[in-house]
Amino acid sequence: MRSYIAAALVATTALLACARTQQEAPVAAATPIAQSPAPAAAAPAQRRQPVSPMKLDTVRKQAIAELMATLKGRENEPAGVVFKNVKLHRDMPVKDFLTMMDEQYGRSLSFACTNCHMDNGDYASDTRKNKVIARQMERMQRDIDTKYINKVKELDDPRPKTTCVMCHRGTPHMPNTMDVPTAPVPQRKRG
């Protein structure tokens, strides 16, 4: 009986194999790699073009003008009183505070307001990483000014102050190289 079941099983398997082969599409002959068609070239990834500094300046000036319009009559109040969550420059008048944000942070880093602040108008939020970094960098600048720069008596400037632009030079990430000048470097007039 066992041999009969084994023979039936072999016959069934052979029939199924035959039926499967007739249903399958014929396999294409293998092509050597050197002769295979080249894959279609992928379209180059579109890289976002940076916004021009002039456009960013316009955007920042407009945002500051709109904010100042909502603060009519409070321009000379301390920034720490008018705005929430001001950690540095709390005593600076609002108009000077916003000018500093535009010129020192925005222009020096080629940033719009929304690089540090939420674009929903929540300026107090510390959600954006760049805002946290900006505060740390401001503290670093203060340390450099008080601990190091003020002690260099040979400097021409009686009140030297470091700024964002000294390192960033208008870019979000500090460049680590300099262009080779194509013309003589202008010399600073002394005294």
What does this structure look like?
By secondary structure, the protein is mainly α. It has a domain of 116 residues: Photosynthetic Reaction Center, subunit C, domain 2 (Orthogonal Bundle), CATH 1.10.468.10. 45% of the residues lie in helices and 0% in strands. It is built from six helices and no strands. Helix 2 runs antiparallel to helix 4. The chain is globular, with a radius of gyration of 34 Å. The N and C termini lie far apart (117 Å). The N terminus is likely disordered.
Compile the SSE list and pairings.
Layout: H1 2-23, H2 53-70, H3 79-82, H4 94-109, H5 129-148, H6 164-168
Sequence of secondary-structure elements: HHHHHH
Q: How many beta-strand runs?
A: 0
Any idea what the CATH superfamily of the domain at 53-168 is called? Photosynthetic Reaction Center, subunit C, domain 2
CATH third-tier fold name of the domain at 53-168: Photosynthetic Reaction Center, subunit C, domain 2
- Amino-to-carboxy terminus distance: 117 Å
Do you know the CATH architecture of the domain at 53-168? Orthogonal Bundle
Count of alpha and pi helical runs: 6
Overall spatial form: globular
Q: For the record, what CATH class of the domain at 53-168 applies? A: Mainly Alpha
- Report the C-alpha radius of gyration, rounded: 34 Å
Sheet with most strands: none
Secondary-structure class = mainly alpha
| Mean of all residue-level pLDDT scores | 80
Q: Give the fraction of residues assigned to helices.
A: 40-55%
The oligomerization state is: single chain
Low-confidence parts lasting 5 or more residues at pLDDT below 50?
1-22
